[in-house]
Specification:
The complex is a heterotrimer of chains A (287), B (53) and C (341). Chain A is of the alpha/beta class. Chain A contains eight helices and six strands. Chain A has two domains: 139 residues, no CATH class; 121 residues, no CATH class. Chain C is built from ten helices and twelve strands. Chain C folds into two domains: 165 residues, no CATH class; 103 residues, no CATH class. Chain C has an eight-stranded mixed β-sheet. In chain C, strands 5-4-12-11 form a four-stranded antiparallel β-sheet, with no helix packed on it. Classes of the chains: A alpha/beta (287), B mainly alpha (53), C alpha+beta (341).
């Protein structure tokens, strides 16, 4: 199936570029190792043959649209289910113009983790709720026949049930691993601030990599995504130190669920994040 | 925010947000007094401390 | 050569730890790191550490001195120098080579960094030769021999359940004498790693790159980079840092922290100007520093082929591919790279 998809991708990209419907197609190409599939930016129709689809096409390509947000370029890109929610994220956050992106959805059978290639399926795909893209101009691939084998908020209650000191120890140990490479922030389609709070001359976050600064970084980053995290798991995938970043993001998503009613971010373009709109019946837990 | 603090092992009472209008002086004083009492009861925070103080 | 069963390694380390601290590679939930050995530490003898041992000589965050102010005067308080001896056990040939480059930066050309120097002098190195290459290793392309460890005090090599130890310096000799009751004399049948999956040829590249600073290649190559600092922080040779004052009222500390050319604040000037304003300039800086500027200044390529950067890059920016592509860009041909099946 993947070979068929690869052929389809190449043909599509070639056509879009030849007909000048777009100036760039973002997809994946093969890297040097079998489990390395890496983003590729195709601008010439001849280069469309670089494109591939396989189980290691991990990168969410939508975040790259932020690099071109002011370019006026028309760009086509391939999106898996989770990546398509990133497009909705960017649209709702008014980072991109719908008419400047041509979205080619891929019905996603679930992918593997290129940092842990021996695993049968990437951890983040196990609780996937949207293998079929939620937004696209065109869709390829067969409808995936798969069910998640993990509950959306699995593992969160376990931490909630710890004593305060246990929780503190648990997170302290995780923050201590952090080397503050900012990969989790940079890869995130929700992190679209032109100037990030963490890049403001150490006004907020010092350069020192110590527990207290690391804790501030992680909590602030997670909170800035409250209600907007699309739960794609890219942050956790790219963390070189294996910090369970999604356990912070999912905790906030779970709270938002319980406070504002069931909500999954960026599934429906019309449905704005609960924290981004006002309703009279909004809870007033703190008022 | 309180829920997140609780999740990482910090007493949630240490962070409180209230809506007070500029004309509600009495309410403001009342809230600050009660917040101060909450914090006093909790004692000094030893968590999330920077070693370099 | 002294021989010991790998199971007995902790006993050696325990002996050594009587009068110094011993850092060993330990798997911390999937991230192998050099940490002080303690009872029960599981030493990783396969593969390499994720975090390079450079942090033991050039820590990510290092306090340089304290200060206090009184009215118009300020007082600098020097920190107590830690002179305790240390041993790093299990440093790989590639990382050993990276220390030569850090030595170049911190100890030569008339600049001697006392903080680095002290740590370097206080540390004995027990190198572990490589019997197997990781998928992402390409040290041989950087002219490093995975079966040699110049600069180490002791060279260790593993074959089956046996570990061979050979002193290369007086310091190493002394250390082996301390544990002579635990070892036996013998030889070991060690075969160094071959069959590297990745290759790159840097021959003649440094001189040529000068003319290609403005090449459109950089614009195209940088696209997939997400601008995080993973590659620079996991790189054993990257050494850029930033010095800051952390003031609390009338006192504070001066700290030195790793910096990364990938960050928007890197080379940002006080007035707001940055000569490297975007992804392209930063990306180019990283590769030209490794492949051109460092060779120009120190006559060494600032890459040891450990492969950490490409193993952990969120977008799999592959330095071996970049080198190969740069050969084409500069027109010096594909170079001597055997085709790898």
């Amino acid at each position: 199936m993947s070979n068929e998809l690869t052929t389809q991708m190449r043909e599509l990209a070639k056509k879009l570029l030849e007909e000048e419907k777009v100036q760039m197609v973002i997809g994946w190409e093969k890297g040097s190792l079998p489990y390395h599939s890496t983003p590729v930016f195709v601008t010439n129709p001849e280069d469309a043959q670089k494109l591939i689809w396989d189980e290691y096409c991990a990168n969410n390509l939508a975040s790259y649209l932020l690099d071109y947000r002011n370019s006026g370029m028309k760009i086509a890109l391939f999106v898996k289910g989770c990546d398509s929610r990133a497009i909705v994220r960017l649209l709702q956050d008014q980072q991109i113009n719908r008419e400047n992106v041509y979205v080619i959805g891929i019905n996603c059978p679930g992918i593997k983790d290129n940092f842990n290639p021996e695993k049968e399926i990437a951890e983040r795909c196990r609780d996937c709720t949207h293998p079929e893209p939620v937004l696209y101009d065109e869709i390829i691939g067969e409808k995936p026949d798969r069910a998640s084998d993990k509950e959306r908020f699995e593992g969160i209650e376990e931490i909630e049930n710890m004593t305060p000191d246990e929780k503190y120890q648990f997170w302290q140990k995780e923050y201590d691993k952090c080397i503050r490479c900012f990969a989790c922030r940079n890869v995130c389609p929700g992190c679209s601030c032109r100037e990030c709070i963490f890049d403001q001359g150490q006004k907020w976050l010092e350069r020192r990599v110590v527990s207290s600064e690391n804790a501030f970084y992680h909590l602030t980053r997670a909170l800035h995504l409250a209600g907007r995290c699309i739960e794609c798991g890219e942050c956790e995938r790219v963390c070189p130190m294996n910090i369970p970043i999604m356990k912070l993001n999912k905790k906030i998503a779970k709270d938002i669920d319980s406070l504002f009613g069931p909500y999954e971010a960026a599934v429906n373009l019309e449905e704005m994040p609960p924290l981004g709109k006002y309703k009279e019946e909004d809870p007033e837990e703190f008022m | 925010m309180q829920r997140l603090l609780e999740y990482v092992g910090i007493e949630p009472e240490r962070f409180q947000a209230r809506w007070v209008s500029g004309s509600e002086a009495a309410k403001f004083a009342e809230i600050v007094t009660s917040l101060t009492e909450d914090i006093k009861a909790l004692g000094p925070n030893r968590k999330l401390r920077d070693d370099h103080e | 050569m002294k021989i010991i069963n790998v199971e007995k390694i902790p006993e050696i380390i325990k002996k050594w730890q009587n009068d110094c601290e011993v850092f060993v590679p330990v798997d911390n939930e999937g991230a192998v790191d050099f940490i002080p050995w303690s009872e029960g530490s599981k030493i990783t003898l396969e593969g390499n550490s994720l975090v390079p041992p450079k942090k033991l000589f050039f820590p990510q965050t290092e306090t340089l001195y304290k200060y206090e102010t009184k009215g118009q005067s300020a007082n600098v308080i020097a920190l107590e120098e830690k002179t305790a001896q240390r041993i790093i056990f299990g440093i790989r040939p590639c990382d050993l080579k990276s220390l030569e480059m850090l030595d170049d930066v911190f100890l030569t050309k008339g600049f001697v960094d006392p903080y680095y120097k002290l740590k370097r002098e206080n540390t004995a190195l027990v190198a572990l030769l490589c019997a197997e290459a990781c998928d992402t290793c390409f040290c041989t392309s950087m002219n490093i021999d995975p079966g040699a460890a110049s600069g180490a005090d002791i060279v260790a090599c593993k074959s089956g359940e046996q570990l061979g130890l050979q002193a290369q310096t007086e310091k190493g000799e002394e250390l082996l004498n301390k544990v002579s009751q635990l070892t036996t004399e013998g030889e070991i049948d060690f075969k160094k790693a071959g069959n590297f999956k990745l290759q790159a040829d840097i021959e003649g590249l440094a001189e040529k790159l000068k003319e290609h600073f403005e090449s459109p290649y950089w614009e195209a190559a940088c696209r997939k980079c997400i601008g995080c600092g993973t590659c620079t922080y996991l790189c054993p040779t990257c050494h850029c840092f930033d010095i800051n004052s952390n003031t609390r009222g009338d006192h504070g500390i001066k700290t030195r922290c790793w910096d990364s050319c990938m960050f928007s604040e890197y080379t940002l000037m006080a007035g707001g100007h940055n000569p490297r304003p975007g992804k392209k300039e930063r990306f180019r800086q990283r590769f030209l520093h490794k492949l051109q500027y460092f060779p120009e200044r120190y006559n060494k390529t600032a890459c040891v082929g450990c492969g950490r950067c490409l193993a952990k890059c969120p977008a799999i920016v592959d330095i071996t591919r970049i080198i190969t592509e740069l050969r084409e860009v500069t027109g010096i041909g594909t170079g001597n790279v055997e085709s790898v099946s």
